[in-house]
Structure formats: C-alpha cells, structure tokens
Amino acid sequence: MSDIKNELLKKVENKALKIGVVGLGYVGLPLALEKAMAGYETTGFDIQQAKVDMVNQGINYIGDIVDKELKDTVASGMLKATSDFSFVADVDFIAICVPTPLDKYQQPDISYVESSCKEIARYLKRGSIVVLESTTYPGTTEELIQPILEEGSSLKCGMDFYLGFSPERVDPGNVIYKTKNTPKVVGGIGKDASEVIASVYRHVLEGDVLEVSSPKVAEMEKILENTYRHINIGLANEMAIICDKMGINVWEVIDAAKTKPYGFAAFYPGPGLGGHCIPLDPYYLTWKAREYNYHTKLIETSGEINDYMPHYVVERASKILNRVKKPLKGSKILILGIAYKKDIDDYRESPAIKITEILEQMCADVEFYDPYIAEYKYKAEMRRGLEKLDDNQINSYDLIIVTTEHSTVDYAQIQRNAKAIFDTKNAMKNIEERDNIDLL
C-alpha cells in the first residue's frame, strides 16, 4: 500500500490529482470550486441536469460563492460538471456531498449516500480515495460505505483504495468563515488513508486540518458540534417562554449573562430551528443510540422544545391579536422573513414556513415578504411573496411577525406604520419607539 500512498502524495504535491465531487449543493459546489481554484482538475456530479448545465455555463446558484470566481474557473477548464457517474473512472479523489435528511419517522435517510456509493463502486479504480462529507451517524463509513465499495468494485479498502470521513462545515451567510478557511477534521480507515486525505485538504484549504483516529470519531465529532447548538438553543427557547410568563426581557438577560468572560456562551431564542444541520443531525445520534439500548434524553427534550416554538409563536400571535379584540381567524398577517437565518436565500427547514402553515390551518390570511426569497416551494406548491413593502401596505396587516432579521429590511419603516409587531428575533432592538412591538 505504501506505493499507492507515495504515488498519491506525489500527485497531490504536483497538482496532478484529479478530483470529483458528488453532489453540487451548498456543500459540494463551494468545495469543488475551492479544489479547482487550488489547481486541481475537478469534476462535479449531480443528478439534477439543471445544476450541471448551470455550472458548465459558469452560472452561480449558491449564495456563498463569488460569481466571477466560478465563471473564471469554469472558463479555465479546471472545473466542469456532469450527470454521468462514469466520470469516477477518470478521477483519483471522490468527495461525497449528498443530502442526508430524516424520513417522516425522524430516522436517518441515507439513501442518497447508499445509491451514490453503489454507482461509485462500479467505476472505482485501484489507487482511488473516497471521502464522505455528508453528516451521518457514527459508523456509516465503515459499516455501510466500505462493504458497498468493496463488493461493487472487488477492491479491498486499505489495500486497493482509501476511505475516510471528513465532515462538512458550512455556515451559509457567514462573512468570516467560508469553506476555504474553516478548520477541517479527517478520519480515515487506517493512518495512511488519513494522511493522504489530510494532505489533499491541506493543499486546498487555508484552515487547519486535524487528523483523528477513525471515521467514527470524525462522524461523532460532527454530531457533537450540532447537538451542542441544538441543546443550547433549546435552553434559550425555554428561557424565552419562562421570561415571557414572568414579564422579563429574555434578550436583556442574555446580553447581561454574556458579559461573563468564562463559562457562558450566548445562544439566542427564535421561532424554531432551520437549516439542514441543527434541526436534523442530533436525531442521527438518537437513532444510532437505540442500537446500544440508550435513549438520548437531553437531545430529545431539546428537540421537543425547539419543535414547539412555531406553535408557541402562533399562540403568542393569537394573544397579541386578542388584546385588540381580533380573532386569529380572518386576521391579515405578514410573515417578515422566510429564510431560516439572516441575509441568505436558504429556506430549508425554515420555521417561518411551519408558522405560516399553522396560521393558515387556523384560517388566518397570511402573506410573506423576504428580500432574498421571491417565492418558495411548499408541498409541491409555489408560493410568491410581496415584491416590496410600502407604508400603506404595512398598515394593512393586523399583525406583522418578524421571523428573520434581515439587515436589508427598514425596521423603522415597519415600526412607524404597523398596527402590531411580534418580533421573534429581536431584529428591532435599535428602535426607540416600541409601543407596538412584542418580543419573543
């Protein structure tokens, strides 16, 4: 195996390594672009032909990517895309960046990983490297992927090819940390695998690369990252509910607590959890833990709190309307923000969509405005938002619920003209006149 290792390390050093990225979404496309910009010939794969065509035309569809960088890199010939899995036969390094959602029973759906690996195995050649980046339960790389690749290719892991796990760390909209400068964790099956995989990332990325002892450690590390946030946000949400009952401003409480220079990290409440990671990833561990006859009580409790928040927002909205003798039924309500976090166009798992659904079930008349999202798809239906907000329009709503704190929204204009506002994100903290504003 040392001959293969040495040959691969030499290819990495000489920028002769050919790279493939399976899945061209929020994780895969930025990763493919960084590898191509680092001087490695890169091929991206996606089952959606529309994405493939856009990449090959240099058209960007991911917010965190610089349009010109993508266009120039494609034009240089260093980056291309395909929907034909046979490309695997022509590359040395394959990164798997496909979705890992939950099914309707809150159990891991790893069908995208499984089907991708079966296709990769058909074309896998000796001396290749396969790295899973999709978040999953501890044990996936060794218990699921390794047997699929070995059986489908007739090659032996650790002898004929290398396999490892390196969790994606993508935070859409983060202006400081991007794919290039975020530290990376690598866990390979065997030290040689870890060394080669880490070498690839060190030549591509600026962030530190940490090698851990196994894929399981890397898989669990990723789950810990997001479970930590999941639980602490659950605590912040529960504090918000308690503070409201006691007539205390939870935002002021948190701002006071975070002045402590040790032992406290500030997390903030909100209308619920959104995005592809925090609402979903902890349940991968919950599911896997049952195999060991253990129930993850803390994770499940925080999940109950976070899942309840959209319902809580509707309950609070109903009470706000009741103060002016307005029933929820028939009230005209504006949802201000569909994206799951500020200043991005990503609405995956957005609590604003769940809040809209609950309000409409209670016969409210609901519209939305989001400067980053003109329309969104929900249950096979496209929903269009308002193109802009003017004073008269703002005043026409019985209640405006702020669900995303976009920095491009004129909150002073909203406050001046709104009858009532329920601010679930403390987006209007700098507004002095607050008589018509209720906070979460």
What does this protein look like?
- The chain is an alpha/beta fold and 440 residues long.
- The chain folds into two domains: 2-213, NAD(P)-binding Rossmann-like Domain (Rossmann fold), CATH 3.40.50; 229-439, 3-Layer(aba) Sandwich (Rossmann fold), CATH 3.40.50.
- Helix content is 41%, strand content 14%.
- The protein contains 14 helices and 15 strands.
- It has helices at residues 2-13, 28-37, 49-56, 67-76, 111-123, 140-153, 191-204, 215-246, 250-257, 281-289, 297-322, 351-361, 391-395, 411-417, and strands at residues 19-22, 42-45, 79-82, 93-96, 128-132, 161-165, 184-188, 209-211, 332-336, 365-369, 375-378, 381-384, 399-402, 421-423, 437-439.
- The protein has an eight-stranded mixed sheet with strand order 3-2-1-4-5-6-7-8, sandwiched between helices. It has a five-stranded parallel sheet with strand order 10-9-13-14-15, with helices on one face. The chain has a two-stranded antiparallel ribbon with strand order 11-12.
- Helix 5 (111-123) runs parallel beside helix 6 and helix 8 runs parallel beside helix 11.
- It is elongated.
Q: Examine the coordinates and then state which fold CATH places here, giving the name of the CATH topology of the largest domain.
A: Rossmann fold
Overall tally of structural domains? 2
Annotation field: number of helices: 14
Separation, N- and C-terminal Cα atoms: 59 Å
- The rough form would be described as elongated
